[in-house]
């Protein structure tokens, strides 16, 4: 969950206790915006479907209803593009905050003289990148 921004790392001095570090920043807003827009899009789609199927005659007779429907659809398309960009920016921020070099710099035990901290592996972000593209 992106909004918790906490993780635990061993202190390495006794190997029996852990230190909780907090990431700087709140990375939940872009994801919340994306999901909220998705929910509103779904609800509007259901309402439009009812209008198209149940009140087809009203939709055909009144010339303002198709224009309003078109304008709302264009607005949703624009906001979807903005939400996808926000999702991508949020992912970039999470990747920067959880970069191994940033995590090592945040660990106080790595700042001690004579201590060498090494990155084991770089986290795989392939599925996260795909979530932005799709």
TrEMBL record:
Source organism of this protein record: Trogon melanurus (Black-tailed trogon)
Source organism superkingdom: Eukaryota
Keyword Membrane: yes
Family: Belongs to the synaptophysin/synaptobrevin family.
Membrane topology, as annotated: Multi-pass membrane protein
Principal localisation: membrane
One of the record's GO cellular component terms: synaptic vesicle membrane
Gene: Sypl2
Keywords: Glycoprotein, Membrane, Transmembrane, Transmembrane helix
Transmembrane feature ranges: 33-55, 67-87
Classification via Pfam families: MARVEL (PF01284)
InterPro entries tied to this protein: Marvel (IPR008253), Synaptophysin/porin (IPR001285)
Protein's name according to its UniProt entry: SYPL2 protein
Domain MARVEL: from-to ranges: 1-134
